[in-house]
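Sequence design from tokenized structure. All designs in this work follow the same two-part layout: the structure record, then the generated sequence. An example of the structure record is given first.
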């Protein structure tokens, strides 16, 4: 039986959120940290961009600052995401057992656990079998939630979870946004180089393509309630794992995360690099 840890970190600053995910990944790689499922929020709200993206092509920074929101580059790939009124999850573990095999297979295993948690909230989410075209992947300023990739989750064809994964040195880090109380339509007003008419069309499109837990369930769902259900989803779906519930990082993980904020996620050199 595999021993896992479930962490609820609560709301954190954007740079801190990314630094903690990476610090845990490095701890798992060394064998100092257990395989981990982590949940967290964002304070302030922020846009994250994928590892390979150029910030100036993805985000209108003047509009972002006007909202009082922040910005960070993820260690994973994918496209721009607005993190606001959501639960973010991270799964960090060796590429073995249920997370062995291909990227799609590990996506499917994680998505099944997330779908179980969403069902506990009254949301019937389904795994999608489609894939994103190469042209769409290359398109600049194309937000993450504008399409659904293989084994991501949707409700009646509307995307409710967007995820990104990295694999390095035998360790998997997958994290993603579970839309809690908003869809991604506001992202239309944070894209650069669009006139208002185009922004309105993108806003309407994202409103049709995305859905939140609150919208799908027809009731208010708090962060704490959602996290409790999502924990249950992993515990029920991954019945062969032993889970320890914790709210605290190890001291070494915390120190490593502070270092990564200082050296990487809190710096212009990382966030604005091309």
């Amino acid at each position: 039986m595999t021993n896992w840890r479930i962490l609820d970190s609560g709301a954190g600053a954007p740079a801190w959120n990314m630094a903690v995910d990476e610090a845990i990944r490095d701890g798992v790689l060394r064998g100092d940290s257990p395989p981990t499922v982590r949940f967290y929020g964002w304070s302030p709200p922020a846009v994250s961009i994928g590892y390979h993206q150029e910030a100036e092509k993805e985000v209108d920074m003047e509009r972002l600052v006007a909202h009082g929101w922040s910005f960070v580059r993820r260690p994973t790939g994918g496209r721009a995401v607005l993190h606001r009124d959501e639960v973010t999850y991270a799964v960090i573990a060796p590429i073995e057992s249920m997370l062995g095999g291909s990227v799609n297979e590990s996506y499917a295993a994680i998505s099944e656990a997330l779908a179980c948690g969403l069902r506990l909230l009254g949301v019937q989410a389904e795994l999608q079998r489609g894939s994103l075209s190469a042209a769409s992947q290359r398109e600049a300023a194309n937000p993450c939630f504008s399409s659904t990739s293989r084994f991501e989750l949707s409700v009646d064809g509307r995307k409710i979870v967007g995820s990104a994964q990295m694999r390095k040195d035998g360790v998997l880090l997958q994290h993603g946004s579970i839309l809690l109380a908003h869809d991604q339509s506001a992202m239309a007003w944070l894209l650069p180089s669009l006139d208002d008419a185009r922004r309105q069309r993108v806003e309407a499109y994202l409103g049709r393509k995305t859905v939140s837990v609150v919208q799908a369930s027809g009731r208010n769902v708090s962060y704490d309630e959602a996290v409790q259900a999502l924990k249950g989803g992993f515990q029920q779906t991954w019945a062969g794992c032993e889970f320890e519930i914790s709210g605290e990082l190890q001291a070494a993980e915390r120190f490593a995360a502070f270092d990564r904020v200082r050296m990487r996620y809190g710096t212009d050199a990382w966030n604005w690099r091309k």
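Residues 132-141 have pLDDT under 50 and may be disordered. We note this feature because it recurs in several other targets discussed in the main text.
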